[in-house]
Amino acid sequence: MKNENLERKLNELDIEKSQCSTFIPSKVSNKCECGLDQINHDRYALEKQNKPSKWDRETCTKPGGITDAYGNIFFKDKNEEISKYIRVYYKTPMNKMIKLLFDDNYWQLKYPRLLISVTGGANLSISRLLMDILCKGLVKAASTT
């Protein structure tokens, strides 16, 4: 069940989700290169003329209305701690996100002392040793900042 109060607040902030606007068939039947099934695309995305040859987030997505992808995550190994999540359009202005996260009228989180962003999306296969080195490097960077 969705929290109606949070839903109203997301409407106030006008925080949108992404929507695929161009169906590019993948090698997997009835799927788009965005990963969604054909049935999850509107008629415009399916019938769009002058489609690019390759799916690209910049040209093949658009804002898809107020986000409905949010809620709570429960981590069993964190003493049943509840964490919040939200999926937003990748061009959502940062001031809206800061307001959602830290404003007294919304999630009321404490400001972080450190914020690390790891950006990527490639499906990499890396060894356990390389993963350990990467994690140790991130910890060292965080502790010296």
From TrEMBL:
Record GO terms (molecular function): ligand-gated calcium channel activity
GO cellular component: plasma membrane
Ranges that cross the membrane: none
Leader sequence segment: none
Domain TRPM SLOG: from-to ranges: 84-145
Protein name, entry field: TRPM SLOG domain-containing protein
Annotated organism of origin: Brachionus calyciflorus
InterPro entries on file: TRPM, TRPM_SLOG
One Pfam family from the record: LSDAT_euk
